[in-house]
Amino acid sequence: MATFSGINDSFDMSAFSVPEQRIIRQLSLEFYITRAAKAAQVGNSKYRAFLMRPAEGMSIALNVEREVVVLFSDYKTFEARTLRAFDLMYEQFDDVRVDGSLRFLISGDDNVEEIIRHYLMQNPEYPIIIPFHYAQFGNANQRVLLDAIRKNYKIRDLFGYQSPLKHEYFFFGRTRLVDNVLDLHKSSQNSALFGLRKSGKTSTIYAIQRRARAVSCRTVALDCQDPAVHARDYSSLLEYIVVQTRLQLGLRRLDITMGVEASEVSDRFRLNMDRTLHEAQSSIMLIFDEIENISPKTAASPHWRNSNDSLLFWQILRAFFQGNRKFKMTFCFVGTNPHLFEIQKLHDVDNPVYLFAPKTFIPMLDFSETQEMLVRLGFFMGLNFDARVASYIHGRFGGHPFFVRQLCSQIHKDIPYGSRPVSVSLSVCKAAEEKSSSDIQSYIQQVINSLAEFYPDELSMIEYLARGDSASFTEMADYAPSYVEHLLGYGIVVRRGADFEFAFDAVRDAVAARLKGPTKLHLTEKWLEISGRRNKIESEIRSFLFVTFRRMDNSDWERILQRSMSERRRLDLGNLSRREAFSRTGSPLYFMELLKLVESSGAFEDEKDQLSGILNAMRVVNELRIDAHAKDIDDLKYQELRDALSLLEGIFAPP
To answer: Which residues, at least 6 apart from 621, have a Cβ–Cβ distance to it below 8 Å?
Structure first.
């Protein structure tokens, strides 16, 4: 419903001085004046404020629909503590109805604009402040207001954040994600959020903590990158968790010792944490940020990788979580690598946190969220992003907030202040992209390096995709659905119908560039040898399986075939006859499906060692397919592949 300018009938004008009443009436020509705030005392100074909502025309110009706070400070000298008065005013109102990212300040200091500019340069995450002097309202009109607002683009680059966003003012998207984490906590369930570098994980944690405070949920956060966390053994870290929980909840410090034996550590942790929750009279959510730093294989300290610390730590926390108590502790795990929750065993013992929390990958911004960020922040910088340009930027970076911000920061640097406000053209956008490409590509390269370190198979898959080898990509996706789950979750690829493609152009270009590395002269010879031998042995294995399964009755054949394929492949292929399955020219079965059929055929039932050698050789052939990778291979791996092919040829190929 449209908002019209004016003043609410119940607005108490008497709370303001005569000059302030005049200013309020002038603002009411473009805004609807809704409510007066109670005066706020900061030190010896007293401040008055009110709320106003922009009328329809001003709302469109400001890109603001909710109420905003206007603060009066009639002192001749502005002091930074004046900004504390804003916080006190916001505490009086429902934050859902009031926009915290835009604030109006009317000051008696002639230099207020310069002072605010300097303050915001030192505090880049502080909300947008539009400063006015009382005297500016002598002949105020819409143009005066808009000009004052537009001046903000001279103050700072709203896109140019490198650090996580601690405040909500410039945080876009992920609302459903944050609400879901809190809903799980309220129902005494855990949550897990994963994303690659610069995907907004820590900013999301800050958003969870802000939202938790608003709905009376209590949180405690641990940064597992800190040696104060990962350098501790399991007992010391459990003690640290109790100490930090009490500290962050404002409870009295306890002298705690956990003991030596695991049973003693578990008992004392339970007693101390129960006491803490009872004193707090509240359930809490314990947030582990950068969880891979205390996870097996990826931990920053060796005792989490190689000893039983990880197993004992999670056994104790799981036991506490499952206990029957009035106040609960739930966990929110945040990190890059979900490996900890995907492995079934830790040191040959059941993993206590296997599937312990629903795994969620932090989504990229959708187009509407990308457009909202561009339009909202761009306005205050004198930059207008139309739908066509917003669509181009979204397509280049798939809604990755960090990359979008870096590009727009470069656009801001390229456009002179004097020409603003200005519409950003595609040519300006592309020129800025070229200038910022080295920085952006370096971050994308870090993403690719993370895949190379943690998920080499998934890296191979996107290399297939970059070459246009969708068949090999699909084969691996069907063989191991978890591979494609990681790529989809990280926002690197998207599924369109039955096909997969890169989620955004920049990562496709980076992977393609990676494949153009130097190659040795004899790569072609290697390729010809391995490709030819692999194709021949695959054909021989199909022939062997056809003869073997032809002796089997139909029900056993259908059962083994179905067990050798993923659910999706079963739906796609249906029931295959043995002739269809093992045709030399038209077989739809993948190499890894042939491996499973060899394993289930019973042909090597009495020769377990030979079967193990066959299966290992088939895995090597599948994993080291340089014909599919089209990249160099070192001599050691090349010889390993030749040995594997020789073993298979000795068994399946005719003499």
So the answer is: 534, 537, 591, 641, 644, 645, 648
